[in-house]
């Protein structure tokens, strides 16, 4: 047996890993690559990319477009993979077409099949990830593919590493007790808190023992992203100086001094040999916390000047300044913001001042800038007598998948000629469209150690040596100066020195770089953030679900939390500020939110105790620092480091759920895995919040029960050849093994394409999608092109469609594998995905969706995995019931590429997908046990019998309710229309519904009958029955294909009469010619002795409706028909219509019975918009009358509160009676006002003719009135 063997000397990469049954496999397993093909995808216009595709291919498109096969294996915590072996493999040559048009033609391809092993953790369980790249360049120069192989591996024992790097979190926060106040600084300095500061901010300082004043904080700058490097765990007490505290009273002349840090950090880069700054992308302030009382506070101690022979003497030090102003984000994505724009203005000057600069030492200028130009361009830099040039690569303006701008950065060494340095930058601007932006400027200089009276920080890199001892000679105005060593921000020390002839001298250790500050007085520019209420997030443990809620939405979040507690979860609602205080030193940061989850994760002693869900209750923005007017930064977002590439930049809420020690850096080469389900409500106000909350609550109650839970809808675009339809078909195969699920396929190319002045359109596909959503479905899956406001280039779904959906009791989970449909972090636009969730009357319960540009081919495997996990069972139950579980496990099986990170969950991660728990089975057909041989023939009467059973197969004798059976004809083959000349696509679908009924279930048992329609497909083949049942509390579902359909019954009842049709709008009180709004509901009541035809097989035999005789725009009502209870001869339709034009219309309905006899019915109506009150059909009934009449009228204010007044006059104009009433208009017709024919004094008025005025006023001030006559007999 031929083998390929690869031995590994593995460097441990701690990458979180999952342990689930689907990962485990024996130490030898078989894999196939199969057919290798090409998929060409277009992003926008001509921007395209070609992918190599094979079944099960995975991609990491940031690094390479070459796909790979991936295997995940659970290990013990002390195991690694020692050896991987491939055997029984077959190799073939890749076709020239594939090689010549893809990356396989590059020189980067190895000369052997590449096998890589890495490790990760998922929910604290260790896994190995074996990646096989099945392409190589053979000795012949040809590219070969590994078509199939057996993979085996051998494990070895290693030291356990995870727990050694895990953080041990505190069990209580210092903020849990005492009185606390939060303050802010925006630069590095020594700060002064005076008596007036405390009094001005409402702190009763005179009642405080100053010896107990304490200040807490943490290291400034952004929190470390790598978990094992982030040691911020609650606030730490800092050493401070309280002048005048010894007497126990804080007098007016007393004050506090403390060292405060810049929110932007700086550090010395030993490789670059210079200081570098890091801009804080989350906060412009560093926060500190003041408290008092109890134990004595931590005070600044003295550091003596050391004795001994110095190894170095310092009178010149390193100084550092930078300039960075964040004004513009190129693509509304990513961490990078840039400053001055070189366009109309091509030259800017930047001034820096370094008093007592050492003119004999070199200085270094570091500069970064961006340019967008289709030809080479330059930024000319001049400082002192030095001139330099930044050169920029060109940008392809014609491709959307290339970087928006190119960065250029460099470091220049120059000789300073003055303490005041001006950096002049001039852009060459070779074309009118060429632009450049300044990013940052850094200056490293040497200054003489002279103190001029202004606070001055100093340090000296040259003095740092092992066992170093350095003498510092500081000259200047030092009579009242202090020198502090601030190298350790927690333990600031007062450096003692000797002063002689205006020179201060001290000797200190210089084993490491030491930072000092010399000052006379403190800086009083301290901001006051307010009082901090006691909190103690550190005391939390064993929490299933954390809801991080912006204060505006806290009440709604508490309602959701209580709802989930009743659902069996332990839930805690926390405010962002609380998290930032304990885990981020008071500054906002997604790392702080992750640290809270990490604390709960590390405290968990079992899998059951692990945190499972995180909800971010509030919208987010790509602008985390509120530079944009109307910003929506309610809950902080994590933006990618890449800020120029539309396909490599992303926003990720998953960032807050990668919890193991070696995770969190998000470098692009990481293999971090999310350890819990994260969702977000992108709400911006209370109305949006309440709308989403109500939808979530409704989805989880019996009000949303219905057979819509048995349907999955797959929508596919017509672009890129047949790519999207093929991908949709691959994903939908997962439903084939789920008996109760029915699939509706809406492929655009299967519908006529209409050319319009605005471009090609698919009006019938739009109707089909809107109908599918309004009638309800468990899942809506879209594969194809899209944008922020809709789907497909033909705009098959847009904003107006989304806002018109009315399906709030039948909410699907949307899965949208399309570009940036749910870009929730753009404050200036509500994306289509956001609107799907925010639509209070319908839309979706949640979306697993995309926030940036994505590629379809990498999407496919993620989408496919999502469905596999969604319907995976264990011990008779669905393994991953809640959306967060499904999403997390799906993400865990994928590389952490930008493409995968662009998928996010908008919605509640604790929502259970509405899959019925119990089972419905067929026990008999026409009185005989089900054996797979029963044949249902056209026009024959059929009786089904069945039962509702629990998960163990037992009859549920306490189940009393209704079952909704649907009988389908055989699977049929279809071919699309080839509208774009990309070739037709062949697919199969079971979409012919023979019968949909409603039957009583008594003690778990039911039966129903119907007559098989004439319009079946007459060849004999397997039919399908799909069941949904509920008893108004719980539900069940089932399905079977164990019977046949075909042929004609031996005896047939003759029938030549069409169905009876009754039609209304909105409610059964509607009259011919009545008024309605632009989104009415069509109500039909149908009956026929043989049954109604809703098959859809026979051409022209659909149940249809159309408006104003436009038969080419008819809408098919087959799927909306439901038979009456235990009666197949009658039924009803409720069909929501959307966006009708204002004015008069004529609605026609055509229905067929199962013998193909038809009937038509028409209804005229008028659409009036709801803004101003309009009246029609004002009358009183009966008229004439003797003792009692009702006033009837139609209006256009359904759902509104109306003030109605009826004034009755004699024909001469005398008022005899006024009737006033407030009504809540539930529909468009009112009959609630009655009159007994008496005047205002209770006396009966005389017989004769009277005039009345009916006046209606809405709460927005609109008024309408009409006059009519009545007769009293």
Strand content: 35-45%
What is the helix tally? Answer: 14
Low confidence ranges? 1-26
Gyration radius, to the nearest Å? 37 Å
First and last CA, distance: 109 Å
CATH class of the largest domain: Alpha Beta
Counted up, domains total 8
Strand order, main sheet: write it out.
57-60-66-65-61-68-69
Q: Examine the coordinates and then state which fold CATH places here, giving the name of the CATH topology of the largest domain.
A: Rossmann fold
Approximate shape: globular
Biggest pleated sheet: 7 strands, mixed, barrel
Number of strands: 86
Category by helix and strand content: mainly beta
Second-tier CATH architecture of the largest domain: 3-Layer(aba) Sandwich
* Average pLDDT, all residues: 91
Q: Which bin fits the share of residues in helices?
A: 10-25%
What does this structure look like?
By secondary structure, the protein is mainly beta. The protein has 8 domains: 134 residues, Immunoglobulin-like; 187 residues, no CATH class; 133 residues, Galactose-binding domain-like (Jelly Rolls), CATH 2.60.120.260; 121 residues, Rossmann fold (3-Layer(aba) Sandwich); 223 residues, Rossmann fold (3-Layer(aba) Sandwich), CATH 3.40.50; 131 residues, Immunoglobulins (Immunoglobulin-like, Sandwich); 108 residues, Immunoglobulins (Immunoglobulin-like, Sandwich); 98 residues, Immunoglobulin-like (Sandwich). The protein has 14 helices and 86 strands. A 7-stranded mixed β-barrel has the order 57-60-66-65-61-68-69. The N terminus is likely disordered. Pfam families: Peptidase_C25. Keywords: Signal.
């Amino acid at each position: 047996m031929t083998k390929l063997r690869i031995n590994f000397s593995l460097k441990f990469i701690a990458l979180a890993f999952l342990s689930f049954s689907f990962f485990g496999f024996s130490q030898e397993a078989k894999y196939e690559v199969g057919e290798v093909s090409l998929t060409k995808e277009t992003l926008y216009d001509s921007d395209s990319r070609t992918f190599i595709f094979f079944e099960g291919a995975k991609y990491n498109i940031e690094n390479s477009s070459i796909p790979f096969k991936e295997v995940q294996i659970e290990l013990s915590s002390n195991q690694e993979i020692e050896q991987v072996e491939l055997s029984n493999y077959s190799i073939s040559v890749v076709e020239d077409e594939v090689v010549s048009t893809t990356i396989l033609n590059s020189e980067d391809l190895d000369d052997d099949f590449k096998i890589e092993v890495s490790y990760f953790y998922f929910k604290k369980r260790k896994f190995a990830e074996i990646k096989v790249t099945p392409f190589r360049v053979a000795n012949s120069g040809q590219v070969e593919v590994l078509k199939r192989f057996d993979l085996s591996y051998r494990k070895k024992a290693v030291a356990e590493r995870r727990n050694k790097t895990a953080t041990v979190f505190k069990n209580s926060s210092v903020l849990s007790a005492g009185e606390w106040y939060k303050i802010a600084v925006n630069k590095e300095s020594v700060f002064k808190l005076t008596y007036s500061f405390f009094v001005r901010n409402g702190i009763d300082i005179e009642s405080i023992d100053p010896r107990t004043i304490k200040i807490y904080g943490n290291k400034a700058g952004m929190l470390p992203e790598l978990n094992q490097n982030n040691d911020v765990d609650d606030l730490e007490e800092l050493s401070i100086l309280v002048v005048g505290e010894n007497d126990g009273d804080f007098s007016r002349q007393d004050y506090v001094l403390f060292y405060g840090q810049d929110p932007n950090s700086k550090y010395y880069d030993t490789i670059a040999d210079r200081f570098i700054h890091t801009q804080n992308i989350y906060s412009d302030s560093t926060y500190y916390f003041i408290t008092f009382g109890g134990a004595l506070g931590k005070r600044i101690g003295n550091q003596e000047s050391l004795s001994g022979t110095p190894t170095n003497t310092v009178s010149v030090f390193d100084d550092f300044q930078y300039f960075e102003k964040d004004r513009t984000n190129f693509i509304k994505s990513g961490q990078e913001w840039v400053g001055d724009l070189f366009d109309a203005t091509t030259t800017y000057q930047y001034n820096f001042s370094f008093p007592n600069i050492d003119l004999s030492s070199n200085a270094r200028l570091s500069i970064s800038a961006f340019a967008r130009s289709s030809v080479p361009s330059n930024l000319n830099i001049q400082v002192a007598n030095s001139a330099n040039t930044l050169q920029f690569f060109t940008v392809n303006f014609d491709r959307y998948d290339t970087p928006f701008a190119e960065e250029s950065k460099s470091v220049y060494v120059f000789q300073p000629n003055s303490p005041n340095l001006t950096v002049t930058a001039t852009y060459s601007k070779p074309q009118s469209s060429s632009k450049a932006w300044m990013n940052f400027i850094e200056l490293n200089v040497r200054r003489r150690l002279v103190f001029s009276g202004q606070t001055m920080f100093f340090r000296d890199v040259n003095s740092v040596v092992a066992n170093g001892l350095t003498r510092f000679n500081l000259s200047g105005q030092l009579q009242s100066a202090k020198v502090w060593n601030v190298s350790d921000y927690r333990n600031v020390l007062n450096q003692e020195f000797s002063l002689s002839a205006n020179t201060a001298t001290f000797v200190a250790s210089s084993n490491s770089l030491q930072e000092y500050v010399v000052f006379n007085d403190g800086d009083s520019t301290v901001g006051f953030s307010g009082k901090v209420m006691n909190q103690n997030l550190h005391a939390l443990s064993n929490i299933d679900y954390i809801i991080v809620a912006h204060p505006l939405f806290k009440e709604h979040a508490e309602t959701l939390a209580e709802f989930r507690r009743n659902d069996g979860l332990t839930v805690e609602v926390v405010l962002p500020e609380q998290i930032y205080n304990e885990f981020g030193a008071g500054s906002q940061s997604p790392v702080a939110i992750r640290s809270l989850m990490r604390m709960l994760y590390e405290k968990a002693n079992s899998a059951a105790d692990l945190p499972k869900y995180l909800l971010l209750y509030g919208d987010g923005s790509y602008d985390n620092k509120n530079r944009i007017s109307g910003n929506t930064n309610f809950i902080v977002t994590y933006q990618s480091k890449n800020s120029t590439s539309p396909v490599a930049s992303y926003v990720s809420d998953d960032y807050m759920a990668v919890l193991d020690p070696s995770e969190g850096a998000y470098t692009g080469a990481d293999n971090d895995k999310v350890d819990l389900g994260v969702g977000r409500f992108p709400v911006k106000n209370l109305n949006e919040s309440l709308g989403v909350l109500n939808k979530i609550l409704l989805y989880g109650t019996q009000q949303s029960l219905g057979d819509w839970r048995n349907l999955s809808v797959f929508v596919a675009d017509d672009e890129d050849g047949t790519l999207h339809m093929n991908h949709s078909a691959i994903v939908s195969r997962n439903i084939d093994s789920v008996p109760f699920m029915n699939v509706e396929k809406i492929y655009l190319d299967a519908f006529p394409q209409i050319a319009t002045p605005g471009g090609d359109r698919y009006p019938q596909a739009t109707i089909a999608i809107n109908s599918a959503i309004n009638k309800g479905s468990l899942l809506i899956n879209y594969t194809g092109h899209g944008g922020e406001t809709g789907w497909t280039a033909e705009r098959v779904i847009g904003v107006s469609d989304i806002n018109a959906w009315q399906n709030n009791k039948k909410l699907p989970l949307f899965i949208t594998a399309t570009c940036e449909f749910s870009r929730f972090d753009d404050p200036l636009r509500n994306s289509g995905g956001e609107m799907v969730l925010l639509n209070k009357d319908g839309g979706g319960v949640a979306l697993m969706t995309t926030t940036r540009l994505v590629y379809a081919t990498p999407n496919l495997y993620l989408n496919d995995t999502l469905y596999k996990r969604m319907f995976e069972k264990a011990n008779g139950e669905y393994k991953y019931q809640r959306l967060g579980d499904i999403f997390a496990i799906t993400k865990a099986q994928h590389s952490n590429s930008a493409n995968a990170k662009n998928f996010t969950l908008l919605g509640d991660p604790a929502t259970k997908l509405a899959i019925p728990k119990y089972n419905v089975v067929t026990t008999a057909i026409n009185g005989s046990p089900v054996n797979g041989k029963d044949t249902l023939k056209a026009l024959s009467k059929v009786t089904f019998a069945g039962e509702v059973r629990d998960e163990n197969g037992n009859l549920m004798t306490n189940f009393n309710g209704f079952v909704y059976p649907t009988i389908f004809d055989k699977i049929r083959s279809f071919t699309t229309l080839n509208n774009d000349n990309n070739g037709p696509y062949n697919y199969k679908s079971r979409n012919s519904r023979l019968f949909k009924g409603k039957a009583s279930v008594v003690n778990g048992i039911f039966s129903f009958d119907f007559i098989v329609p004439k319009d079946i497909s007459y060849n004999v083949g397997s039919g399908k029955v799909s069941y949904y049942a509920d008893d108004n509390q719980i539900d069940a579902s089932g399905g079977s294909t164990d019977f046949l359909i075909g042929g004609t019954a031996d005896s047939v009842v003759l029938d030549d009469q069409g169905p009876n049709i009754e039609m209304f709008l909105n409610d059964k009180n509607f009259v011919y010619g009545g008024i309605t709004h632009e989104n009415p509901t069509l109500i039909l009541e149908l009956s026929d002795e043989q049954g109604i035809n809703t098959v859809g097989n026979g051409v022209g035999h659909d149940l249809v409706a159309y408006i104003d005789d436009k038969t080419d725009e008819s809408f098919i009502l087959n799927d909306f028909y439901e038979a009456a209870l235990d009666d197949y001869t009658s039924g009803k339709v409720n069909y929501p219509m959307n966006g009708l034009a204002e004015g008069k219309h004529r609605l026609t309905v055509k229905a067929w019975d199962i013998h193909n006899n038809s009937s038509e019915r028409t209804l005229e109506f008028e659409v009036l918009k709801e803004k101003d009150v309009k009246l029609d059909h004002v009358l009183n009934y009966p008229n004439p009358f003797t003792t009692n009449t009702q006033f009837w009228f139609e209006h256009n204010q359904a759902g509104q509160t109306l003030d109605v007044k009826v004034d009755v006059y004699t024909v001469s104009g005398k008022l005899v009676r006024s009737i006033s009433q407030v009504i809540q208009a539930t529909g468009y017709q009112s009959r609630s006002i009655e009159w007994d024919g008496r005047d205002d004094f209770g006396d009966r008025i005389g017989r004769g003719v009277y005039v009345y005025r009916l006046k209606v006023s809405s709460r927005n001030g609109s008024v309408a009135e009409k006059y009519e006559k009545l007769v009293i007999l």
